[in-house]
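pipeline/complex-builder :: batch 7 item 3
reading input block
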Amino acid sequence: MTFLQAIFLLGTLAVAGPIAAHLLARPRFRKVPFTMLRFLRSGEIETQSRRRIRNLLVLLIRCAIVILIAVFFAGPERILAQRNVQTLPVVILGVDDSLSMAYGDVFPRAVEAAEAMIESADTNARFHVIGLASGASSRDLDAAGSRQFLSELRPTPLKMKIAPLLSAVDSVSRASTGAVSVGLVSDFTAEARVALDGVDEPIPVSSFTCQRVDAGDSPSNLALLDARVLPGADRTLTLAVTIANYGDTPEEVNLTGTLDDSPPVETPIRVDARARMSVQLRLPLASSDLAFSRIELRIASDDGLPEDNRYFLGLGQGRQRAKRVLILTKDAEESFLLKTALETLSQLNPMDPMTVQVVSHHRFEENLLADADIVILASALNRKTQWVEELADWVNARGRLIGFVDPELESGLGYYESLSEAGIFPATPVELRREPLRLATNVRESVFTDSLSPESNAIHALQNYRLEDLPVLGAYTLVLADGAEVLWSFGEGDPFLCYKTAGRGSALLVNTSADDDFSPLMKSPGAVAFVNFLVGGGAQLDPVAFEAGETVLLPASDFELAHSKGGETIYVKTPSGSAVPAQLSTGSISVAPIPELGWVATRTKPVRYAGLNVPHGETDITPSTDAALEILLARVFEESGESANGTTTTERERQSLWRGFAWAVLGLVLADVFVSNRVSR
Amino acid sequence: MAGASKYLDPALLSRLQNMELVARCAVQGFFSGLHPSPFHGFSAEYSEHRQYEPGDELRFLDWKVFGRTNKLYIKQFRQDTNVPVYILLDSSKSMTFQGDGTTYSKLDYGRFLTAALTSLMLGQGDSVGLMVFADRILTRISPRGRRTHLYAILTALERVRGEGQTRLTDVLHAFAETATRRGIVILISDLLDDADDLASGLSHLKYLQHDVIIFHTLDHLEIALDYQGLVQFEDLETGDRLRTYPESLKNTYQANVQAFLDDIEKSSGRKEIDYWLMDTSQTLDRAFMAYLGRRRRLM
């Protein structure tokens, strides 16, 4: 019998434990005076002797359990047969085929370096070659076969991963008793170093060879990193584009944006060395229907890596319909100015249309809430608890509630109090102050957290109108609810605009009237900007862009959603034009990672696009220092120093005996329970 | 236990320091539960008057009362059988056994019993003697019928100390040889002696036509062996030691003890001896009833 982990046999020493316990744990007898000992004698002699035997038996069983457990952990084996075999050395070559390797002639040089490793290996060696980004691999090759496989490798728009190499080393080490050598060829850019840094413990190998192939000093490389859609007006689409200069010299190039088949828009940019910047690019809109457009951004740079000079972006429809605004009012005149401002906003911003409905208090019905995205209380309802529960449920679900005050609010003060008590309203008006007030100039902008949050430029636009110059004739003192925020104050410090989130929705209290009773706000040019601020930003269009290698989600069409049973397979078109299967689930089309750059598009109309771009930071080819790299690699592989050549080893056919020991331990534990129980009796 | 009868509880009696108090409390407690008393007889000592009822013997009519009141009254007298009662109290070391949780030993119980019986017997007009013994006769008080005799016995009881081994045979034979007048012999002992020897001694008493009552006094623990864990038993009389797990022997022990008790009871029954197993946790009235029952049979 042999043992896989003979060190565990030291555990048999633990048998001293039960023996010591047996010797040291002497029974302690309580002394009791008694009279009728003669009636005890006959049974006692037998019991005492039996007890000694049983105690000894328990001791033996427990010793046996300890020994068997130690043997069990040592991995007992029986050698059935034994023969000598010749083992061949194995060389595992990991070649970084990430996109950064596409810079200039880096990848061909990497292939040459890998071939040199093959040449220098033992003539009998077998090779495993792995593309560390693509995951492509081929095993058990001879030298010619590995050269052939290397010649077929191409850089892919993915990041380098070290896991495939480590996994191959592990599996080869387990399967082979021969020497295992590892060769690694990479440019060791920042992303590659991140991959290496994730290794916790070095893996022992016979030998390890590393070859760095990089772009050299002062490379020229610009990269488009990101693009986001900003809500805009005036029939333009504003994109915030992030550009990085990974080189050591400043670059001046043109940034070009193309929306669908429209003429491209070009803007010159200058990016400093080793810097990144954000540029706003305005694309004119030919049509108001932008729901499923595609945008390509490009920088005209002849640097060494053209793949990251383009950025692909699809436009998805954030909501499937226009925002619905419901104004609850005592009479239509009261909210005329408010309604006009909202409709004007809707016309100005075709990307974020709205439908506005005015309903008087006595005609309000609960089913109107179901369709509304925003409810505006131009004035409070008279009855204190009217619709409070329904409004609370609606706000918590998703809605935004906006309340105005007016000089005749006294009868409705209790209503706002009820809404506050229901936990959805930010403040309760208490007392009317009829005195001239001015708005402060600063508006807080970072507290909106619900789905209708306005973008920061809505706030900037609002501030352009200098609303602080408007005369306000009166306001209420407010008692703020728990968790409420004051977004905007009067110059005197009293709250003008309060905000509170509730569930997935939010509520605002505007401390002025919806018409001009208190202030000429709604008649001013800033009215539209103000209601834009109140009703939230343009979340109508969602940018649809992913990194190559990520799971892609495309918006599902109404038709697909209506006829979806979930988990259905549909086909989409990849950037290379091939059709790949995708799954329809939870309102989206889910596509498995595609290692390409360009657009993934649906094959059904309306055609929806998702941009596939270079993984973030992958083309940052800034080299690392040799010392830093050496430290990093030492944490990945550890050379054992054994010969990397073939050896003759004795192979034994073994039969594992651990099951028998496990059963024996179990049986003895049961026996121990039985015998111990008898002893205690 | 309500009223005065609570004084029949040995646990309570054990808290009374004065043996006389023990005796009176126990007897009063007993009689408080027995009214009207069936034990009044007609002898020389006046007891009380009661109204005449048809069937009463006319010779007991109190004519003087009839002459003064024109009503018929019967004059009752305390019965005097002039039966000597010998109480034999075992004071061997084994009688000092006191089970866990109890505040008195078998010897204490025997003393209470002796005191209470003495008080009762003297109240009934009997003459009472006492013999305290272990391996030999330690104290001997001859039977007397005077009330003051109670104090002589109580004083002797207070001097009793548990010591020595039980040698019933020798003691019973020695007693039999000296107590020639026929009477009632009350043996209070745990009977921890050889059964054959005990039978021999008792036979001697029966041969002399004594009426024998045995109050076999045992502690509950001696009967049940309710001990937990590892125990080293030490014999009170011999000093022998025995280490064991009592729980493992309980059944065997109880069977042995039961056989021992059955043996004594059968042997007693054959000799027409009243045998009473007195668990020290039991009240004293059982002993009183045993004595009075035996006394009635003698009338």
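note: Chain A touches chain B at residues 27-37, 39-44, 47-48, 51, 681 (CB under 8 Å).
queue -> next item
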